[in-house]
Specification:
The chain has 365 residues and is an alpha+beta fold. It folds into three domains: 40-99, Roll (Structural Genomics Hypothetical 15.5 Kd Protein In mrcA-pckA Intergenic Region, Chain A); 108-202, Pseudouridine synthase (2-Layer Sandwich), CATH 3.30.2350; 207-361, Pseudouridine synthase (2-Layer Sandwich). The chain is 21% helix and 25% strand. Strands 5, 6, 7, 8, 9, 10, 11, 12, 13, 14 and 15 form an eleven-stranded mixed beta sheet that branches. Strands 1-4-2-3 form a four-stranded antiparallel beta sheet, with no helix packed on it. The protein is globular, with a radius of gyration of 21 Å.
Amino acid sequence: MQRRLKTSPRAAPRPIARSGLAVRQANRGDDTAAIATGVQTVSVGADEAGMRVDRFLEARFPGLSFSHIQRIIRKGEVRVNGKRVDSKDRLAAGQAVRIPPLKLAGPSAAEEQTGGDEGTRAFLQSLTLYEDDDVLVLNKPAGLAVQGGSGTVRHIDGMLGALRDRSGQRPRLVHRLDKDTAGCLLVAKTRFAAAALGKTFRSRAARKIYWALVAGVPKPKQGRISTFLAKEEREDDSVMRIAAHGEEGASHAVTYYAVVETAAQKLAWLSLKPVTGRTHQLRAHCAYINHPIVGDPKYFQKENWELPGGIQNRLHLLARRIVVPHPRGGVIDVTAPLPPHMQQSWNLLGFDTTGYDPIVEAPEE
């Protein structure tokens, strides 16, 4: 029997599912690596093949802060088979990873700001769309960062430490959402689930659907966007730009889109299905076809365009739905409601969220 959870567009999140607790608890075990004070070398397991270096360290050492992981990689303190690596490099089974002395993260600023572990757990509970022994799906609010960075102290990753289990295992992020993007965020509660879901995302077996409000109406009303994207550093920021095939640092990105409804040919509600998972992919792709997402501070560059009255100047992008195979069988199928600022816009424009979503029939590759 398949494991499914669907949330109605207008309904509150359903109760948390907790089936099969005894069986899963017996299978889980304590797979958390110890934080060492000296240099150590660990071998990449078969279930970790293909993982990014930074995510490998997150999974192996859940007590490490994200900023610390990035710092030791950037400084060249992490070596794979004796060579320096980048955080995005992929690992192969059997490779030897040299790891420098590690520093266990203390209580995060996020935990302090939400009242410690108890307050943090309550806050995360309020965001929970689905949970079982292996996975957690959160409804990430717009404006809350997924991970820390320069000047960012309050973020989901920092809060997850409050959900450690009895063996000390810390939930791990499986994928990311931009700070200003709301919606479904999948989290693995065990190393087993992190490895299984990591493979699911790398094989593109995870199905994600996003909703966006864009300027103008794309023609045709359903289509495929295929480009190469590369990161461009600016003085105080970075963006993803359209790049040429074969250009150094460029990655292929594919997105399917469909127009769901329109408002006087000035605005369109798009349903988007990314085949690949590049940074800012949907935002860059919508701008590329000259229909940028409303409220996007990085990619909205239409001249002489005025924001319609009553619509907030905030990013109108929602990770609406995620459908993934469950690590232990069955399917996780979760839908997130519109965040308040998008709900306000949908109400103003008369868009009906209960209608048919044409992107469902778009190809998966």
